[in-house]
Amino acid sequence: MKKVSIVFFIFLNYSISFSQSESSFLENQDGFIVGENHITGKNIVAKTHAFDGEISTFLYDTKYNLAALSINKESSLAPGKLIIYNPDTEEITDERMVNTKQDYSSFHIYEGLLFEYYKSGKYYIDINSGGARKWSTKNMILHANKDYNVAISFVLNTDNTISLIKGIDIPTGKILWSRNMKKNLGLDAMKYLNDSVILISSSGLHAMHIRTGKGWKHNATTTSKSGGPIGVSIGVGLTLGLLTGLYFIPTYPYISLYGISSNILIDNHKIYFASADELVCLDEQGKTIWKQKLSKKKSTSSQLFTQNGTLYLMNKGAVAKGNSILKSGEAYLSAYDANSGSLLFLANIEPDNPKPMLDAIVKGNKLCIIYPDQILTLSLSTGAYVKKQPYDANNKGELRYFLGNNVYAIENNEVYDLPHAELGAYCVFTAFKNLLIFDDKLDIDKIINIDNLCTHSFSIRDVDFFKRNNDLLGIDSNGNIIAIIRDISDKAVTANNKIYDVKSNTLLEIDLEQIFN
């Protein structure tokens, strides 16, 4: 089976005009010090690729080793540039003027495909043939599949809803297929059923072959404008409803405030999906195996997960809007026989709590849920409360979200995997950027400052690289820190045992082989 990736394009504030200019490339130099090798005692150095303006945006195509850079001039009135640069050959393969005073647009590069966006149109550029425009569309481009040479676009209405999804042949721009959507609804989720069929949640559930558009549709109600939501700010980057191994993907672009649907869950060749009024189990051809009615009055965004042959639906009683979570509907946990759909139990969660549920995680046979000022656990066998604990947010900040699977702690120069090291415990971030470790009784066992946390970035040979603040730590199989690369930005990417990052007007190229030599 082919490996496929869902790519949600990133939109940035640039406007591009297509006149060529003199090259913005200045020079390459070796030996810029970026860190230390603790084994050899030598400095870790980078090769620098300097340009004639500040690099404001940096994207990197790891398959074709091409950097997409937007260059700003010192004067706010002077035009900038969009540059496609190959650091291996030290050549600019495409360069065009950027006028930041014109209307909104953006760009994205992916597997040799360059897309540029304007209010007046979206363009596909063939960067392997001199940067020529190949075709344009007035629609938004959501996803590109290089294996099938198809881009998926959608018609965005003036009220930020969608009415049509199209498949576009990438080499020619020809419309291959289109699928009508109900108006006044948004795009809730997108997932591959297999390497060639994509599932899209919008006014129901749609399955379509990526190349032909052929497939099926399951009608469902996925929006509601009833109820009076109550908001709570949660801060940038928080995703509602993270569960172990399962991730709720927020709507992008954000379209419907009252989007009521679940994640698309595929398990044992069955598709599970919850809308405002029903939970369904479908086969891969879209035929209904079973369905259960749900209460529209209670329904909000929800999360599906399975465990030991049981399907669980956690109705969050909340919807997301930007950086806030809004209280809406009612929170509950229901359980079903995954094969027959028989209801095993339905348990209401905090019906009298005026604050919204923020996050949830599954550990063993328990579901742990946090509110800004409360943490509680439910039994996955019965839905009954196991433990409920109020939390004083005054000293440590309101609870925010659970720790992900990729976060580690550093103590006494030793790095350890928190989710696995703290078995039976619950790791929760607060508004004050501390990590609280709650034990099985929901008492605080430990407090870890965010400066002592790191995330696993990548591995080369027997060395794992962890990001801590702005430093990248290379740690061997014995847990020893053997290298530190300093001041690495969040834009940095890795490709072919190298790190690419940007500072000011310079693209940095760090060859990691020097750590092993």
Structural account:
- It is a single chain.
- The chain is mostly beta strands.
- Helices cover 2% and strands 53% of the residues.
- It has three helices and 45 strands.
- The strands form nine sheets. Strands 35-34-39-40-41-42-2-3-45-44-43 form an eleven-stranded antiparallel β-sheet.
- Strand 2 and strand 3 form a beta hairpin.
- The longest helix has 4 residues, at 393-396.
Q: What's the short story on this structure?
A:
The chain is mainly beta and 517 residues long. A hairpin with a 5-residue loop joins strand 31 and strand 32 (385-390). Residues 1-21 and 224-258 have low confidence and may be disordered.
Major beta sheet, specifics?
A: 11 strands, antiparallel
Helix content: under 10%
Low-pLDDT runs of 5+ residues are 1-21, 224-258
> Which structural class do the helices and strands define?
mainly beta
What is the global morphology? Answer: globular
Could you report the average pLDDT, rounded to the nearest whole number?
79
- Radius of gyration, in angstroms, nearest whole number: 25 Å
> For the largest beta sheet, what order do the strands appear in spatially?
35-34-39-40-41-42-2-3-45-44-43
The proportion of residues in beta strands is over 45%
Distance from N terminus to C terminus (CA atoms, Å) equals: 38 Å
Strand segment count: 45
Our count of helices gives 3
